Amino acid sequence: MSPQDYVQQKAAASGSSFYYAFLFLPAPRRAAITAFYAFCREVDDVVDEVSDPAVAQTKLGWWRKEVAQAFAGQPSHPCTQALMPLAATYGIEARHLLAVIDGCQMDLEQNRYLDFPALQRYCHLVAGIVGEVAARIFGQTDPATTDYAHRLGLAFQLTNIVRDVGEDAMRGRIYLPVNELQRFDVKAHELLKRGAAPGTDTADFERRFRALMAFQCERALRTYDEALALLPAADRRSQKPGLMMASIYRTLLTEIAADPLLVLNQRVSLTPLRKFWLAWKVQALGRL
Question: What distance in Å separates the CA atoms of residue 109 and residue 195, rounded to the nearest whole number?
Answer without folding.
Answer: 26
